[in-house]
Protein: Bifunctional polynucleotide phosphatase/kinase
Organism: Pararge aegeria
Amino acid sequence: MASVWEAIDGGEVYIYTAKGLKSSNKIAAFDMDGTLIKTKSGKVHPVDINDWQIAFPQVSKKLTEKLNDGYKIIIFSNQSPIGNGRVKIEDFKKKIEGIVEKLNVPIQVYLATGKGFYRKPATGMWKLLAEKKNDNIPIDIGSSFYCGDAAGRMANWAPGRKKDHSMADILLAENLGITFYTPEQFFLGHSIANVPMNKPEFIPKELKPEPFNEALISTEKELLVLVGFPGSGKSTLVKQIEKKSGNRYVAVCRDVLGTWQKCAAEATKLLKQGKSVIVDSTNPDTESRARWTSLAKDMNVACRCAIMTTSKAHAQHNNKFREIMKINHVPISDIVFHTYKNKFVEPTVREGFKEVIKVKFSPTFDDKEAETVYNMYLLEK
């Protein structure tokens, strides 16, 4: 069979299957940039499609050994420049074909061009391999492995070496439950026993379910001001409060109404109608919260604050989860998270709140697949 290219999900993934490739229950999977190849120019990012060379003299030999041991050789590579148009796919195809030819072993190459489930450390590319691209041969997780340079190593992990750009490779292996090697381990036989490595800030599997705090619902009419990162679970909390209160509580959301002034006008109207109002926005500082304590005072109603204890990393995980699951929301940039963190001042009763309640986010899922994805590492750093 001749070598073949195919596009999956409208080009979210491109797969190159080299001539002579055979499926196997044992997978030897590799990252590409910084693992199998490096730039000729010495720059971090290639200057053009010809700016590459084999990363280590031992690469072809080691791949051939694995092939002879019955392994199927795979490359999983994040290539967002293809997705955002900075690199033309037709040019990149030539680069891949040249690399596979140089390595001189049959390889199947997966290129994730977007930011969804196919992008490492999420397991979408592996899922494609396991379910559709391995001739129905079940993969032996215990015999398979993944090798990549994005391992979270700190600066000077070797003399003069910069820190790794991310943890995407080691976390992909963690998500899959397969053995992980750095390139230096696999190709050069180096130990990583004493290499300083970063760990993820948020570990989704360690999240414990939290029961709903009934104290969030008051018997008296009130203004309940939420505080928390974007993606911290405020909107989920709103739905819970609305449902459990029999819709005595109604939310005003800045994302929907556009400005705090419009939210204040709507809140005033709802309070006059006898409803309790939830203010669903980030409200990181005393200034943004003072608008609401002032309104509550003017309307002669109680004002409480509910702060989501969700960390920045956890909120970013939630944001990534929504992006991967194509839940109807606009992805939030890292700048928005940084801005919130820099502005944040812990709310206290001295601001005019009757009470400040801390709320732990507890996700709920529509199905098992969503829960499985949520419990993976989704962030690259």
Summary: The longest strand covers residues 72-78. Residues 4-188 form a domain with the Rossmann fold fold (CATH 3.40.50.1000). The radius of gyration is 25 Å.
